[in-house]
Amino acid sequence: MRYAFFPGCTLESAAEELMISTMKVAEALGIELIELKGWTCCGASHIQDIDDFLATSINARNIALGEKLGVSKIITVCNTCTLMLRTAKAKLDKNKKLRTRVNESLRSTGMQYKGNVEVTHLLWALIEDYGLDRLKEKVKRPLTGLKVANFYGCHILMPPKIMGFENHMNPQSMEMIAEVLGAESVKFDQRLACCGFHAVFPAEKEVMNLTGMNCLSPKASGADCLITPCPLCQMQLDAYQPDAQKGFSKDITMPVLHLPQLIGLALGFSPQELAIQRHVVDAIPVLTENVLV
Amino acid sequence: MRTIHYKIKRFDGKREWYQDYQLQYEKGKTILWALTAIREQLDPTLVFTSACRHAICGSCAIKVNGKSFLACKTSLDEVLETFKSDYLVFEPLSNFEVIKDLAIAWEPKMEKMKQVKPWLIPSNKGSVERGFIQSEDDFHEISSPTDCILCGVCTSECNQLAVNDGTYLDPFILNRAYRFSVDSRDCAPEEHIRPVYENELWKCIHCMQCISSCPKGIPLTDEIAYLRQESIKMGEVNNQGAKHAFAFYDDVRNKGRLNETMLPIKTDGLLKTATTKIPFALRMIKKGKINPFHMPKAIEGIKGVKEIYKYAEEVKHS
Ligand code: FES
């Protein structure tokens, strides 16, 4: 299995541990990830607020980089990157006039948007391309006894017209993966909540409140840790947790792992190999207690 | 016989409780059918609102298992299939004041909506005598936002309103502001947009709930992007939201990628960053999450990216 890999900006800096764990997991599963040469930031759901044509154009360029590689899919490990690329693709595939204009804009790059690759996320690819049975065979250390709270994040589900992998009102993909890995998924109110990351500057007070609720809810359900398929959710829930704590009298402590880190643990990697020690809220104690015997 | 179990949130003005009801399953029904059947067959005291039964009046929206739906338009079978359960919880919409049971108060929202002048401010191109002709293209600009039936589903699902003190405008209000600001017959778009800007426009989190749940498929998030673009054109660039967006916009043009170290400084300024974000930065550095000395190099092909920016500028001004 080969994919063109679009890492996105956070994987180069604040979520380097996601780059490390994704690479480890992909290699162990025999998935080849070819990083796009010269990819740009996807716009992170901000650039369209200044110029939507530009936002579409830069992502047309990103997709065109993937088209050059002759693979059928571009893969990401970030919800927002997936949404931004798929939004551009949906617009370009639907609107011929726009596509002509965007291709005019790409002329200086020597590239063209053709529309012949798909954009997917690792979570989806594991289910629809790799297969859960195959993933199950690779499990070396079943995560038996580990109670996980699956926090999807908005951008892997909505808008359904653009994302549409599963029903956005009751998705099951994360639970399916957790089950294969041997972990137990807990039910919690904030499973489909918003992490607030994209407005953490202009709406700091509100977003910190969201973060606190997003930690308390899985805690009340007895979760050992929160799992997310998005580095932006992860950053909001983990790195800002000490700031969010200030607004709550109850202890909100909740370790937050990236999805590939959870998979990596089940594949037998140590927390250090998956760079789990980098998280602000230490996840290693609960892992040691539950799975690393 | 298959039984569907309904748990309905009741409120009598003082007391709140959940009440259980059961109905035999019937194929091809709507949520509104269930509500009506419960009131007619089981409990005449249950209060909910509805009128047209055809997704026109906008009065029947409620929450089912935590998600908001227009009751008369939503198929019961679809909901049972979505939640894979024969147990449904009905509650009034969120982010509204509740009057009784499932009935919510609209007056405060209408008062709030007045701020954006949700009416046409006519230009002198038309008059009562001559009429006010609009081209077909101009009409298409307003046809989708005009579909709004004020059902409140977007408000109920809005993640900013869930934590906001009430200043932030409901998505349907933003839609009204948009609808009149793009109307070719309106001569004062700023009068609709300025109040939007002043009421925390940049607090939208981009969660995509409104666009995903609108029963009329109105592209609300695209409208919010438009309103932000217009506020920037009006000169409103000196705020955290716009500065944050420009940080991304500029970084992509200059290097192709985001400089995460500089992002807070570009958004909040050096002083505010120094006073508020230092603990955050220190814990990030300590864990190896941020290397303050990592400055991204320009990507391969940055020249082409700059050309794309130039082209987009031309498109904007053409
Ligand atoms: S009853 Fe009128 S919209 Fe549902």
Q: How is this structure best described in words?
A:
The complex is a heterodimer of chains A (293) and B (318). Chain A has 293 residues and is α/β, with parallel strands linked by helices. Chain A folds into two domains: 2-122, Glutathione S-transferase Yfyf (Class Pi), Chain A, domain 2; 132-290, Rossmann fold (3-Layer(aba) Sandwich). Helix content of chain A is 44%, strand content 10%. Chain A has a four-stranded parallel beta sheet, with helices on both faces. Chain A is globular, with a radius of gyration of 19 Å. The model of chain A has no long low-confidence stretch (mean pLDDT 96). Chain B is an alpha+beta fold and 318 residues long. Chain B has 14 helices and seven strands. Chain B has helices spanning 31-42, 76-83, 107-113, 136-143, 153-157, 159-163, 171-181, 189-198, 209-213, 220-233, 240-254, 263-276, 278-286, 302-317; strands at 3-11, 16-24, 61-64, 67-70, 87-91, 98-100, 103-104. In chain B, strand 6 (98-100) and strand 7 (103-104) form a beta hairpin. At the A-B interface, helix 2, helix 4 and helix 8 of A face helix 6, helix 9, helix 10, helix 11 and helix 12 of B. FE2/S2 (inorganic) cluster is lined by residues 50-53, 55-60, 70-72 of chain B.
Helices and strands in order:
The complex is a heterodimer of chains A (293) and B (318).
Chain A: E1 2-5, H1 16-29, E2 32-35, H2 52-68, E3 73-76, H3 79-94, H4 96-106, E4 118-121, H5 122-130, H6 132-138, E5 147-150, H7 173-181, E6 184-185, H8 204-220, E7 225-228, H9 231-239, H10 241-245, E8 256-258, H11 259-266, H12 284-290
Parallel strand pairs in A: 1-2, 1-3, 3-4, 5-6, 5-7, 7-8
Helix pairs in contact in A: 1-11, 2-3, 2-4, 3-4, 6-7
Chain B: E1 3-11, E2 16-24, H1 31-42, E3 61-64, E4 67-70, H2 76-83, E5 87-91, E6 98-100, E7 103-104, H3 107-113, H4 136-143, H5 153-157, H6 159-163, H7 171-181, H8 189-198, H9 209-213, H10 220-233, H11 240-254, H12 263-276, H13 278-286, H14 302-317
Parallel strand pairs in B: 1-5
Antiparallel strand pairs in B: 1-2, 3-4, 3-5, 6-7
Helix pairs in contact in B: 7-8, 7-10, 8-10, 11-12
The structure holds FE2/S2 (inorganic) cluster (FES).
